[in-house]
Amino acid sequence: MTKIALITGASRGLGRNTALNIARNGGDVITYQSREEDARAVVAEIVAMGCQAIALKLDVGDVSTFKPFAEHLRMALRETWQRDTFDHLVNNAGHGDMAPIAETTEAQFDKLVNVHFKGVFFLTQALLPLIADGGRIVNLSSGLTRISFPGFSAYSAVKGAVEVLSIYMAKEFGSRGIAVNTVAPGAIETDFLGGAVRDTPDLNNTFAGMTALGRVGVPDDIGPMIASLLSDDNRWINAQRIEVSGGQVI
To answer: Which residues are catalytic?
Structure first.
C-alpha cells in the first residue's frame, strides 16, 4: 500500500525538498500557508513522478483552524486515496526571527511559540485519529538547540521544547506503533530569515567555518534524510534527536 505523508510548509525550502524526496517512494499530501502557486507547482512535480499529491491550505500558527483542517483532510484522503488515514506526519513549517533577548518583543516570542511549538503540539493532537497505526512523526528542530548563536534565543528555546515533546510523543503513541523522532538541521541555504544564510556571504562563511565538512547545508542534504528516516529500513529508530549538520561545532 502506498504510504501517504502530510508535510507542513511544503511549498518551499526544506518542506518542498522533503515532499519531493518522499514522493519518490509514494504519495504525498502537502500543505502551505500562503504560497498556493508554489504549492501547486510542487504537486505538479510529484504527479509528474507518477505519484498522487494534493495541496491543502493550513496556518500552523492558528490552533482554531486545526479541527476543520482535520475534517478537510479526512475528506481529501477518501476522495484521492480511498483511505481514512495517512502514514507520516512531518511537522516542518516554520519561520525565523532573529533578535537579542533584550530586544525580543512579546509579539515575536508569541509567534515563534505558536508556530513552532503550540502548533506542533495541537496539530499533532488534531491529526492523531487520522494517523495510521504503525505510522511515523518527524518534528523539525534545529542545530541551534545544542550551540548558542547571537539572536536565536527565542527560536532555539521553542525548538528545544519540540525536542522534549517528541520524546513524550514517542512514549505516548508507542502503543499504536507510531515512532516519533526529531530532525535537527544545521545552517541551510534556504529562504529562512529572508535567505540570510544563503544570500549573506559573511554569515554563510561563519557557519561554514563552524562545520566540520566546511560548508553550510542545502535542502538536498535534509530532504533525502527525512525520506530515509520514514522508510521501513529505519522502523526501529524512535525518540531520537538526529542532527543533520555536516558536523556543526564539534
So the answer is: 155
